[in-house]
Amino acid sequence: MAFESLSDKFQNIFNNLKKKGKLSEADVKAAMREVKMALLEADVNFKVVKDFVNAVKERAIGDEVMESLTPGQHVIKIVNEEMVALMGSDESELTFTTGGGPTIYMMVGLQGAGKTTTSAKLAGLLKKKGKKPLLVACDIYRPAAIKQLQVVGEQLSIPVFSMGNQNKPIDIAKAALEHGSKNHHDLIILDTAGRLHIDETMMDELIELKEVIKPKETLLVVDAMTGQDAVHVAELFNEKIGVDGVILTKLDGDTRGGAALSVKAVTQKPIKFAGMGEKLSDLEVFYPERMASRILG
Ligand code: GDP
């Protein structure tokens, strides 16, 4: 199960809180020090941890909580609510182009994050909801990316538009849009080219692609297992090209939870989906409440 390491620590802290009858200010402060340690060890961003702990303390240290019959439960409830707020957002739903023209999503991210797999997963999910998606292979740098997209597209019976790796991504994308409208696709998902590391050429290419294609949403795919690196990547992509939402992949293998807990607070962009496995059906809408209960037990 994801987040087990962080989850175990919270269980301990909460059990100790529940055991106590009345809580003193010192008890709450001590518990919050433990929460802080647990979150830092889970690789949550330092500033995010500080703000989170302060927010909980501010609400937990007060007459209402201390004098309640079950102060421990009360503190736990506050931790839960603040954790939901940390990951939550009102604008986490995908938006679609209405009236004229297909909805275009541009998938961006570093190599290995899961961009190609997630493009297909998302197309599959939306096909089930009645859309007619077209997947577009613009990742011309990773040798197997085009073939990989074709394979997963076939598994989902979703057409894949590709022009090999000798054309520029921007020309592929333009041709794909034309092909898409001729064939009445109402959803076009571009699997753009990543790199192993962030570099200027990649960013410039994506900026140009975004300007010309004008996607309805630019969705950033990051690997949750890379913790703060994922958050850093998200910050940079958002700064340079602007993203509308984040998709966190490999949450199924993430024992720590640092990226899930930091990325929204750091970038102010919602986490829209979570990748929960390698199968094409393993993509879930990201629900902050569900994540918080997975972490807090
Ligand atoms: P890209 O280079 O960003 O296009 O990455 P790929 O789509 O090729 O994915 C890289 C690897 O991560 C592949 O082996 C995928 O099966 C795997 N992967 C992608 N998403 C997930 C996920 O949510 N969970 C797990 N366990 N593996 C994933």
From TrEMBL:
Presence of the UniProt keyword Zinc in the record: no
Protein's UniProt name: Signal recognition particle protein
Compartment(s) where it occurs, according to its Swiss-Prot or TrEMBL record: Cytoplasm
Subunit (UniProt): Part of the signal recognition particle protein translocation system, which is composed of SRP and FtsY.
EC number: 3.6.5.4
A GO CC annotation given for this chain: signal recognition particle
Binding site for GTP: 109-116, 191-195, 249-252
Domain (SRP54-type proteins GTP-binding): residue spans on this chain: 270-283
GO biological process: SRP-dependent cotranslational protein targeting to membrane
Part of the intact protein present: 1 to 297 of 449
Entry domain remark: Composed of three domains: the N-terminal N domain, which is responsible for interactions with the ribosome, the central G domain, which binds GTP, and the C-terminal M domain, which binds the RNA and the signal sequence of the RNC.
Top-level lineage group: Bacteria
Reactions that this protein is recorded to catalyse: GTP + H2O = GDP + phosphate + H(+)
Assigned protein family: Belongs to the GTP-binding SRP family. SRP54 subfamily.
GO MF annotation: an example: 7S RNA binding
